[in-house]
Amino acid sequence: MTLAELKHSTANPEPPALAAALVALWWEAKGDWGRAHTLIMDEKGADCAWVHAYLHRREGDLANARYWYGEAGRPLPSESLAAEWNSIAAALLDNPMGLK
After folding, report:
1. How far apart are CA 54 and CA 60, in angstroms?
2. Which of 19, 47, 73, 87 has the fewest Cβ atoms within 10 Å of its own Cβ atom?
3. What are residue 80's phi and psi, to 5 degrees?
């Protein structure tokens, strides 16, 4: 799946079969932050921590975001939220583990 295909799929009522980190990004792109956060909050691994960090940055909770960026081994980004969403999604889509 490409980044463009992932974005286009948000017109559908349900996400494509992807790893939890990408599905959480998908729900956030549809405007359902709560569902995205519920999905990701108990997941393990750096990819999920990265998405969790992004979600808290989106929420405006920078202290919590900093914690999760640390768990992901990533610095707090200076790019826009939209650019970060694209960066995360592209990186996860390039990872064979991102696909179910």
Report:
1. 10
2. 73
3. -65, 160
Give one DSSP letter per residue of 65-85, joined into a string. HHHHHHHHT-PPP-S-HHHHH
* Helices marked H in 2-100: 3-9, 20-29, 33-40, 46-59, 62-72, 81-94
pTM for this entry: 0.92
Q: What is the Cα–Cα distance from 59 to 73, expressed in whole angstroms?
A: 20
Structure tokens given for 29? 């792109």
Is residue 74 left, alpha or beta, with left meaning phi > 0 and alpha meaning psi from -120 to 50? beta
Backbone angles phi, psi at 43, to 5 degrees: -80, 150
Q: Which residue has the tokens 């390039």?
A: 94
- Spatial distance between the Cα atoms of 52 and 100, rounded to a whole number of angstroms: 19
User: Tell me: the pLDDT tens digits for 3-39?
Assistant: 999 999 999 999 999 999 999 999 999 999 999 999 9
Tokens of 34: 């709560």
